[in-house]
């Protein structure tokens, strides 16, 4: 039994903690509050085998202390959307420092922002040409970690996914569309409702993180978490309504001016403006490399949608 340290108890961090604990590994989950893994709807969880620690992971000394003796360090944290420029750099530096001091392989949960606006499906071989502030922040985190890897200071890799599906997943679809649709109302999104879009299941991100950490041949490069064929927001909403036993889905496009007006009062809405390119045209990820390397097939979209719906309903009941 080896020690695995996870920073962040959001959907991916929680899924990773549960996966490792189920395999009999020693798991230490670090959050500011010391909270445990988020519970899947309809399932009880005792947190058996998961040690929850309250600490600020951006504190290099504290993180180094909590990762001593670990074989793997998983970055699954998610600073508030409007605080990426201030919160990510010190956290990224602390993660590299802890990996260097402990010898643990650092596997980071990344995203697709760093590629910027591209034509065609995104692959791991594409250069990072971010065209947004948040994209440049994420690209810099990976470049710094990779530089430390190439210098022989640490061992690292990154697992990237598209917008998430799964219990507690947060995306414009899961926040602005899905709750309305399964309640029989009309969802709205600042997007081309018919553009193909990739949706990654959080459980598949967790499986890929664990597989990458265990395979030294996988280090020193990014991986795309196995992701099913893309579906437009309209298609995804229609399927969700069917699975939820709700009336036929009704969705509408939110005018750009409405998003800008919302941004005057809502930091999250304001931060969505610069990433509108992801929602106004096809946004598709090619993830076959990870499936070939690790034998991980993407979870069917219906299964991921069911879990997302159950999570929304469980939260509403509470």
Q: Can you tell me the overall shape?
A: globular
Number of domains: 2
Q: Give the H and E element order.
A: EHEEHEHEHEEHEEHEHEHHHH
Any guess at the CATH architecture of the largest domain? 3-Layer(aba) Sandwich
Q: What gyration radius follows from the Cα positions, in whole Å?
A: 19 Å
- CATH top-level class of the largest domain: Alpha Beta
Low-confidence stretches: none
Secondary-structure class: alpha/beta
Number of strands: 11
Largest sheet: 7 strands, parallel
Spatial strand sequence of the major β-sheet? 3-2-1-4-5-6-10
Strand content: 15-25%
CATH topology of the largest domain: Rossmann fold
How far apart lie the N and C ends? 36 Å
Features:
Epimerase_deHydtase; UDP-galactose 4-epimerase, domain 1; NAD(P)-bd_dom_sf; 2 domains; about 40% helix; Rossmann fold; Nucleoside-diphosphate-sugar epimerase; seven-stranded parallel β-sheet; about 325 residues
